[in-house]
Design brief:
- By secondary structure, the chain is an all-alpha fold.
- The chain folds into 2 domains: 52 residues, no CATH class; 48 residues, no CATH class.
- The protein is built from 3 helices and no strands.
- The longest helix is centred in the C-terminal third of the chain and has 17 residues.
Length: 104
């Protein structure tokens, strides 16, 4: 289900940022943080490990389908009470509900 995980750590954005009275001024953000953040976002689009579209159950996850997938998984796990549902069974439930939705 998970093909790989990449990790990127960023430094703290600066001492003024977490304060309750911070006014949102970009000039308060540490330049090292901005430099590394710029490179992080560049890597997401065309770097060594570019961001890929997630495809749970072989179907690309889009903004439109995200809510439906989360709701379907939540329903699959919720309706299993008091017996626990395996992740595999939850995915099968999603597949069945997707298939039924395509038929209607």
């Amino acid at each position: 289900m998970i093909a790989g995980v990449n990790l990127c750590c960023l430094p703290h954005p600066g001492p003024r940022i977490p304060k309750a009275n911070w006014n949102g001024s970009v000039t308060d953000i540490d330049t090292d943080f901005l430099y590394l953040l710029t490179h992080f976002f560049a890597n997401l689009s065309h770097g060594e490990y570019p961001l890929k579209v997630a495809a749970p159950l072989g179907q690309e996850l889009t903004a439109k389908s995200f809510c439906r997938v989360v709701e379907t998984l939540a329903t699959a796990f919720k309706s299993a009470r008091p017996d626990a549902t395996s992740l595999r069974k939850a995915f099968v439930t999603c597949e069945v509900q997707d298939f039924v939705g395509m038929l209607s």
